[in-house]
Amino acid sequence: MSYSTNTPPPQRRWAALVVLLVAEAMNLIDATIMTVAAPVIRAGLGGPASSIQWFSAAYTLPFAVFLITGGRLGDIVGRRRVFRLGMAGFVLASLGCALAPSTAALIALRAVQGTAAALIIPQTIGMIRTMFTGPALARAMGTIGPVMGFAAVTGPMVGGALTQADVLGSSWRAVFLINVPLGAAVLVATPLLHEDRAAFRPRLDHAGTALAVLGSSLLVYPLIQGGAHGWPGWCWAMLVAGGAVLAGFAAHQQRRDRSGRSPLIEPGLFANRSFTAALASSVLFFSVVGGLMLVAVLQTQLGLHRDVLSAGYTLLPWSAMMALSSWVAGAWLVPRYGARVMSVGLLALLAGVVSAAAVYATSPPASYPWLLSPALAMAGIGQGLYAVPFFTTALHRVRPHETGSAAGLLNAVQQLGGTLGVALLGSLFFHAAAPGDPTPAAAALTGARNAFCLAAALILAAAVTTAMMLPRGPSPTSPDQPVVPDATAR
Question: Count of CB atoms within 10 A of residue 150's CB?
Fold first, then answer.
């Protein structure tokens, strides 16, 4: 239930929807642009190879852990107000990234960007739900998928084109500067949005947020840095400590719930076996998607020394087929076959990933692997078929009062999965090359092959957890609208 200070007329609602969709697209484009631009940025600023992973992880990690808190802030002080604050922060952080003088400064500013995005994204769905009702709500929600698909396709191409064009000597800095006019336009248009907040305002859980940030960071840091240092004891100690902190976070949430205060996450969700399996599936699936897109770009740029535009073209079959299959799944397959489409999606994803691993294993080191394109296209088909029904299926047996918390947690775990994928599969690419590889090109092929093989194992694990989340029998409760992921293509 929410409290609105004004209700916009119908014609204004659709203009406001455009503003919100631009904000959603900016988040996804920023992530996909970074995937293709990261090697060029590292070449320009210097730093270790792990910097490439941190350029992405520094954004997605705070985005993941602050998503739920960002949603709570919107409930408390007003969604339009928090949306404005987040967009202003995003624009300023983007400008700072464009002017960053060093790798360390850019990574820090990427973290600010991710935190700002965590304030923006939770407000968009909330404001759409309060501006529209009935059939108009279904039409408004239905626009998100195509817009996200378009952003997923154009992101790598825009990133490659902007970096390659080197406008006024800006090189990679242009990929951040593009956020400034877009974000400024959104800020100017925010009067079109109407203010609303929750009728019953929850309290912020500062200790819970701190534990989530600390635990997640303790897991991600050694996964990125461990390989470069030969996996010393401190890496394993940090992983164990991260697990312990997250266990403490779970206990803290239970204590807060028993005391009648608002926890970040409804503890009752974890008594639901299907939802717990959905969380595991989300981590596994999105780690594959997020990690492999980066690995494909790294092999193209670092192994073959192709330009950034070629890296964008490498990802185009994946992104384009993901967008197309998402549309087909949402329009025809899911309404007819329901959650079973997820199994087909995983099978297609597995076929694409295994085929890509075979291409990397058999391609000449110095030649562009042209057979990679159909393999990545198949992986994109699998991603679209799986992601569209996933969120609604995950909420199949969630009780009505838990739906908001469950949706926020699913989106946060999606981002965390992408972060872990970049850390794990990216590290395997950099540090798993065979000792006998004579050239960087051969080493890159070996690293890519190994990363895709590990991803195939993760997909098989996701198949097990997905089978556990599939509904059996009628649903006692079901959300009235599908829950749309914050970044479908990651």
Answer: 16
3-class secondary-structure state, position 4: strand
Question: Which tokens go with 446?
Answer: 């070996």
C-alpha angle 408-404-67 in degrees, rounded to nearest 5: 25
Cα of 430 vs its chain's centroid, Å: 22
**Distances, alpha carbon 415 to alpha carbons 28, 57, 133, 434, 488, in Å:** 11, 10, 29, 31, 10
For residue 196, the cross-strand partners are 4
pLDDT for 482 equals: 46
The CA distances from residue 27 to 6, 90, 131, 132, 249, in Å, are 27, 10, 22, 23, 28
Using CA of residue 24, residue 27, residue 31, residue 33, what is the dihedral sign? positive
At residue 424, the pLDDT reads: 93
Cβ-based neighbours of 362, under 8 Å, separated by 6 or more = none
The number of angstroms, rounded, from the C-alpha of 479 to the middle of its chain's C-alpha atoms is: 22
For residue 300, what pLDDT is reported? 92
CA distance 412 to 65: 6
The letter for the amino acid at 176 is F
Per-residue tokens: 314? 């490498």
Residues 6+ apart with CB under 8 A from 243: 215, 219
Q: What is the pLDDT of residue 241?
A: 95
- Two structure tokens written together for 231: 């996996």
pLDDT at 471: 64
Widest pairwise Cα distance in the chain: 68
Residue 428 near residue 451 (C-beta atoms within 8 A): yes
CB 83 within 8 A of CB 123: yes
pLDDT score of 27: 86
For residue 29, the model assigns a pLDDT of: 85
Nearest-Å Rg of the Cα atoms of the chain is 21
For residue 198, the cross-strand partners are 2
Rounded to whole angstroms, how far apart are CA atoms 129 and 479?
13
Cβ–Cβ under 8 Å, residues 342 and 385: yes
Crossing angle (nearest 10°) for helices 372-394 and 403-431: 150
The ranges of the chain with pLDDT < 70 are 1-10, 198-200, 228, 400-401, 404, 432-439, 471-490
State residue 199's pLDDT score. Answer: 66
DSSP designation for 475: -
